[in-house]
Structure formats: C-alpha cells, structure tokens
What does this fold into?
Amino acid sequence: MGLYARYVLPRLIDLVMRNKADTAERAKLIPFASGVVLEIGIGSALNVPYYGSTVKRLYGVDPSRELWKIARRRVRDASFPVEFIATSAERIPLDDATADTAVTTWTLCTIPDAGRALGEIRRVLKPGGRLLFIEHGRAPDPGVEAWQRRLNPVWRTVAGGCNLDRKIDDLIVRAGFQITRIDRGYGDGPKLLSYLYKGLAEVRG
Ligand SMILES: C[S@@+](CC[C@H](N)C(=O)[O-])C[C@H]1O[C@@H](n2cnc3c(N)ncnc32)[C@H](O)[C@@H]1O
It folds into this structure.
C-alpha cells in the first residue's frame, strides 16, 4: 500500500464524508436501523451517532484498518457493542440470518464486486430484514452520464476505487431485494458525484 492510500486517503475520506449535506442525509435514514445491524463500509463510523436505542449490536465490515483507527474514538460512546470486521464485503464471515438491518452509505460505488457483496448482505440478513442505503451513482441525464463514464477510470484511481456510474437501484434489485422506498435526485456538489439513491429495501421472499 502506498503512502497516499495509507495516510492521505483515509483522512481525506473522513473529512469529505463529514460534510453538512451528507450528515443531514445520515440523520434522516440511519434511525430506521434496529436490532442487530450489519454496516458495510463502516469507514470512519460517521453513521454511529445516528443509530437509535433499538440497536442491539453493530457489525462494521470494512477492509480499511486505517479508517477504523479514526472510527475507534467515535464508537467509544456508542450504547451498543460494535465489532469491526476487517474484510471485503464480497465474503462476510457471519452466519446466515444474523442481522435485522443492513446499512450501506456511499460504499457500493467502491466495492469491486458490488453485486456479490449485496448477495452476501442478503444472506446475512434475517428473513424480512431491511437494507438502508444512501449511495451515489449513475445520473439519468445522458450528458452527465457520458461524463461519468469518461472520467470513471481516472476518478477510480484517485478516489480509492470509487466508481461514478453504477446504477445502484438495479444492483440492489438484481441481488434479490425489493425496494420499498426510494428517493433519487441530485444532492449538493458536482452533478457527476451527487446523484443520490436513498431508500429502503427488503429481502425478496
Ligand atoms: C466513501 S467511503 C464511505 C464510508 C462510510 N460508509 C460513510 O458513509 O462515511 C467508502 C467506504 O467503502 C469502504 N470499502 C472499500 N472497499 C470495500 C469493500 N470491498 N468492502 C467493504 N467496504 C469497502 C472503504 O474502506 C470506505 O470506508
């Protein structure tokens, strides 16, 4: 791992992801989590302050130990146990039907095989379990989408593997979820990066 990926990128991610608009989105969605929660790409644990009193335990999956070092001080005050699992989400070392809620925020863009990771999330969720998501991805405007595709190879290199052009709702449905609520639209910031998919999905029976 190079110096940029080890020292610069984790601090940059923590800083950028603390912006006001994203924080407001977290505050709206994360309180819907309850029971045993599986958070994919826990990063620097910016969602943790928004989990409510019905959360019993949190498993945070993320390959980045550097981000977890930043996260540790944030999880110290949590009112539930938090277990960090240092791995990629395509293979989650938890039993089937362990979690009541799964959470992904600004993460499906980066997981190399997001479809496979969503399959793992579905396996680890209990029947009737819910997936809460806030993700950025492919914009509906052909002009914006064309630029997302064009810039993707360069962006992926500087942004730790992040892809600009994933169609998040299709990925979720293809993995066997039924989306029960979704809001799509541009948030703050450049259109290439700010088209958000926010919502809830359930394991399809
Ligand atoms: C833009 S950050 C978002 C962090 C956090 N979810 C948030 O909302 O602030 C993307 C996160 O995805 C994580 N990530 C990258 N590859 C991953 C993988 N294969 N499996 C799980 N998480 C991954 C990164 O380490 C990072 O924490």
Summary: Residues 142-158 form the longest helix (17 residues). The radius of gyration is 16 Å.
